[in-house]
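Reader question, answered in our methods column.
A reader sent in the components of a multi-part assembly and asked whether the whole thing could be modeled at once rather than chain by chain. We filled in our standard form and ran it. Here is what they sent:
COMPLEX SIZE: two components
ENTRIES:
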Amino acid sequence: MGFLLNTCARTLTALFVLPALAQQPPRTIVAISAGGGDYLKGAGGTLARFIDEGYKVYVIQTGNDEKYSIGLGPAETRLANNADAERAARALGVTEIVNLNNKTGELSQLSSNELRNQMSTLIRFFKPQKLFLPDPYIHYDPEWDQFWTGRAAEETNYTNSGAFLAELVRIGIKGHSVPETYYYSTRRPYRPGEGGHNGARLEAVDISGTFQRKAEALMQLRTTNRAYAEHVRQRLELMNRPSALLEKLDEASVDALAREWLRELAITIGAKHGFSHGEEFNYHGSPPGERQPLPPWILERAKPLPRKP
Amino acid sequence: MRLCLLLGIVSGILIGQGQNRFPLGEIPPGKILLVAQPHHDDHTTDYGMGGVIARFVEHGYKAYYIRASNDEKDGANGYPRNDIINLKETWNGIRILGMEDVISLNWRNDFMNPIPLNELREQLIFLIRKYRPDVVLGHNPWEHYQKNPDHRNVARALVEAYWLAGYDTVHPEHFKLGMKPHAAGHFYGKGRLDWGLGQISNVALELNDSQVRKKERAIAAHRNVYHNPGARRAMQARLAAMGMHVPELDAANDDDASDLILHWWMNWISRDIGGKAGVAYAEDLYYMDPQYHLPGLKAYIDANARKAPSE
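And here is the structure of the entire assembly that came back:
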């Protein structure tokens, strides 16, 4: 009897459920990131949750990461960081990183239209339902690659309509409007006055269940983590406050510092929203199936339909 | 004791309400208003200033509109036709508001991020020197969550032009053409609010019925992008699903209903801002004059300024 029921259930699934699933468009996310690790820091836990729900995540990396290292030349740095970023992406479950290979730290010299159009092309190709991008309105971050990347990325909201990039339409790549946008702050929590106003909302995500994976992914960024630890060590020495934890920079001490940095970020955000570990976003858009409410200038004139006699 | 407590509660409520209110501003003395925006419809949209323009004109100002882009993306008629239709409809819209002229700079629509900003700024300096406005009105360049590159760059070039047009060290070639330096006295900026905290306005200008009616008609003049005959049936279907209807939509045809919906939109926005300023209708802006951040200096100048003897 059990076998019969099981067979029936499998047959029904094959007949009805699987074809319905196959007809659904693939669930896709594009995460835009200046460096190979920025999207991990700002949104890694949330992306991991979506990956677990069945989303494929593609990362568009704008910079070539040639600057972040200690003791390596630009080309070696780039090779090392790109390899680290690939390992980190795999650890999180990202499907692919597309690296646009612009010179890190020099994005202000780029034509922003060119950068925007590169992103638009890939967004049209991947057709995501959700777009993650660094928030260009997060102030007081001296790394301006976040700003230039975020600014070009938010303009794709315009340029993915059919009225743009006629050359792409000609070769069959049509416009694609992304329904949901998540602005992330790469290195710190949102501050009062930033994000979540008017038509946007501050979206908090509980990443307690995925924090460990986020941390494991971040540990793969060995070259930048080591550079960060070295800079922290030098600054502490300048302040006459050398730390015994960083006296010897080895894999364990570098990892411990990177993990502690990430934990502090996650628990600070989490404490704002009642989670143990959190991430937060300035969110624009509507989730699938949710319709915008009728505008107030219509609703204020609405009356109940007269009853039929 | 109870009386003190009651007074404390009442004054607390009043102070709380006051914090939510925009202070009401007045139209500054002057004769010329120069409005510079990137697009055909930016004078009157949800983040526009059509009612304020109408109020300046009714106050006796001559008003001019600079359209910085070519608006080729707005509409479904292809780039060149969109440009022509949108320019024609700019004229229709600004005439309703009582403005005098449109100057179209024709920069490529939605591609204005990497344009040479000094070149756009020079155009605006030239126009400020030609029209010699008392008041300059445009978008706020410090606005956040503005996805449109045209708005950001036209706004930035405009405030720089507002700052530099008065210096005789800036673009001296203009003076060979008979221009003179001109420092406009007042700047008003608008922010877009539907994507986040665009700006925190510091003043509201009250509108009367006539000014709101002009604003309603001015947006509807941009038929290429706003006329939507299908809107009536879409609204009716959604209302019916809620067991509701709007009698005015039932009575109107599709074309008229499209205009009605636009009129209601502008009217509601004007009432919403008006409610925050304690009046029936208003628009909110960020206002700057050279002393706006130093009210003490303004009081000193008001008390001590004397009219220069005529030569």
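What stands out: The two ends of chain A are 55 Å apart (CA to CA). The first helix of chain A runs from residue 2 to 23.
Send us your own complexes using the same form.
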